[in-house]
Amino acid sequence: RAKERGRNHYQLYNHAIGAQVMEYVAIENGIRQALERSEFQVFYQPQINLATGEIDCVEALARWLHPELGWVPPNQFIPAAEEHGLIVRLGEWILRTACSQTRSWQKNGLPHIRVAVNFSVKQFQSPNLCDRIMQILAETDLEPQYLELEITESLVMQDQNTVIKMLRQLQSLGMRVSIDDFGTGYSSLSYLRLLPVSKVKIDASFVRETPQNNEDAAITSAIIAMAHNLNLIAIAEGVERKEQLEFLRSHNCDAVQGYLFSRPVPAHEATLLLQAQFK
Ligand code: C2E
Ligand code: MG
Ligand code: MG
Ligand code: MG
User: Fold this and answer.
1) 147-151, 184-188, 196-200, 241-245: lowest mean pLDDT where?
2) Residues 203-239 pLDDT 10s
3) What is the predicted pLDDT for the residue at 2?
4) What is the 3-state secondary structure (H, E, C) of the chain?
5) Among residues 44, 70, 112, 126, which one has the fewest Cβ atoms lying within 10 Å of its Cβ?
6) What is the DSSP letter of 260?
7) Would you give the DSSP letter of residue 184?
């Protein structure tokens, strides 16, 4: 009987591994196919400069329109793409699409705005990142000053010296770098002064209950003050309500991004927002 149980165990075990392998292969093929079939899209969410009231930058946010599952959010496929070694290819596709769209707004006489593209840790681990970015900028005919790279604190925690060197190189080529989801990592504030970045994005989790929650409001205003003391631009993410905007304005936050102004929208809708601003 023990032997039988052993064999069942073995079969069960084997089956579970088999299912995992199947799922792994399915996800990998899914992402590969999606790239080939152009199922990915880039949406754009405006950032509003509070001094001018105008959109001066849009964040590029990836979307996957899966033929059966419908819209798959980036929090589901970006980690999968990283795990399957596909993030570099996918990331380059997103970057090329965002740069080419931004250049086409310029060519169509719309205001010259920057585009902010999210980069994951894995993309920074490829040694020729700077060259690849420069190549994509050349291909799409976009000047580096219109590209902003959004990175997270976790990236810098990896391998400080290498990352700092890469960020310096990117900045010396004219690109801007911003720290995304600021305040959610476990990095110390002092390291921020070592980083060649120009912008801090206050994470939406602090903005959500600002100003009614005193602690969150204190953190939000402290991040703005700290950013300014370090000569960095402060932008708040996830701004949904007027009270948040008033608080941010009164604390001299430089820019805002959130549903109050616009959700992330497809390129043609972003075009309309830019046209409206131009008139
Ligand atoms: P993130 O870079 O912090 O992007 C901001 C997220 O907040 C976006 O979610 C955006 O849709 C959402 N958001 C913006 N305003 C509001 C608001 O007022 N209220 C609320 N509740 N949410 C708001 P999304 O598009 O689902 O993206 C989630 C995350 O996935 C991004 O966070 C980013 O980390 C990652 N991601 C998205 N696109 C890419 C990409 O092209 N490459 C990489 N590596 N990561 C990406
Ligand atoms: Mg971002
Ligand atoms: Mg963020
Ligand atoms: Mg986020």
Assistant:
1) 184-188
2) 999 999 999 999 999 999 999 999 999 999 999 999 9
3) 47
4) CHHHHHHHHHHHHHHHHHHHHHHHHHHHHHHHHHHHCCCEEEEEEEEEECCCCEEEEEEEEEEEEECCCEEECHHHHHHHHHHCCCHHHHHHHHHHHHHHHHHHHHHCCCCCCEEEEECCHHHHCCCCHHHHHHHHHHHHCCCHHHEEEEEEHHHHHHCHHHHHHHHHHHHHCCCEEEEEEECCCCCCHHHHHHCCCCEEEECHHHHCCCCCCHHHHHHHHHHHHHHHHCCCEEEECCCCCHHHHHHHHHCCCCEECCCCCCCCECHHHHHHHHHHHHC
5) 70
6) T
7) S
Residue 32 has pLDDT above 80, yes or no: yes
Ligand 1 atom closest to the Cα of residue 119 is 44
In the prediction, which pLDDT does 3 show?
Answer: 47
**Stronger pLDDT, 42 or 2, i.e. the higher one:** 42
Q: Which of 31, 42, 61 to mutate to test the pocket of ligand 1 (most atoms within 8 A of CB)?
A: 61
Residue 226 pLDDT: 93
Q: Is 79 in the pocket of ligand 1 (CB under 6 A)?
A: no
pLDDT at residue number 25:
67
Measure CA 43 to chain center. Answer: 11
More confident residue, 3 or 164: 164
State which of 71, 118, 260 you would mutate to test the pocket of ligand 1, scoring each by most atoms of that ligand within 8 A of its C-beta. Answer: 118
